[in-house]
């Protein structure tokens, strides 16, 4: 989406596009009014121990003797952040405190904040940004990248034959209820839903790992990284106290909620920091990478900016009556001694994740309660000014989003659409099992390994037939282009051309309805 062109000035002196400087991203935005101070030692809530004999799944238990599910099982922390066991200096890792079966979903989804055209094929957030293949962003630009934050995008890597999870990308952007008619339009990321599943049986205490690509490791023989669950409870952070839902605030998008009753002072999630000298580190080329500044914190009187990442930290909405706050961690992974160094020594020693904040409960919390931070008076004033001056774009009420379309209804062919067109803002996308191929006609086939957003391309519905059992089968033309060509799709590419020779088209036949999804049409928003 293009910036609205209006800006809100914060007391820190930074000018931000108001479409971004609100609600979702403001969960960690402009904390100038917030002074992080040394507080008393963090309350440690040691969770119920698990020796790994019980495998907790979403459907049933598997163990040596029958055990009935009871309320205490729901209170057990299932996932932890802790020091990685992959290799020395691997940073933090994600661990399962319970046994998982192959195919089981892991934790809650992640979000990604994308930059459509970064000035290079990487960003200054380095390892905290991902390529388009992770978040369904291949159509956002020629080299789009995104800051992906949460659980799954913090996994460490291992060789392909030793990993135990795989990333599953979202197949459809979502608005979380923040439409063009609301002042928060443009303030949330539509790229939400990155999750992962177990690719093998996972024992309690094992670290969750994925395959980044080429693996190079020289050292001791490799083994599956694992820690004792008791050690995770004592030295790590439970990241299972929280879940993501739509906020109780109208127009606020998503929010962070408690999963269980929690006592005052409970740490709900850690926020490791990546630290920058000042905002100039983010180039101003086309104003692209400056978007990430909106996710940074900056204390009054300091040029230094910190970028917090961790499960749910970007989804805590604002309230003048907060129920959670920030504080420095007292865990050994937080190097508080760095904060006492002079600047030269500080920059020589600090690395991403070596300084850690925590979000903790200011009071007792009940299950299902939404979490709120106080962003400060400066943010509230800027938001009130934005709401007072904001006007929705033309024809905002008639804009149709992909999530409003029915993913099960019969699809109209290009011929039928001449008399009964679909909304101009949406377009069909088709899953194709064979991505690298020459033009021509191919019969669709099921390929579980290839199923995913990387094999989704915009498409035209050429024909519709019905099988003996009445199921719909489609013939589709794929709108083909190479993601790494540096040339994004044009409006001409997206327009159906009936004069094109069939031999020049990429055509799939016998395509089931479930392999066709809706997405926003490029150049329509």
TrEMBL record:
Residues 240-376 form the SET domain. Keywords: Membrane, Transmembrane, Transmembrane helix. This is SET domain-containing protein. It comes from the Eukaryota. The lineage of its organism: Eukaryota, Sar, Stramenopiles, Ochrophyta, Bacillariophyta. The chain crosses the membrane at residues 12-31. Signal peptide: none annotated.
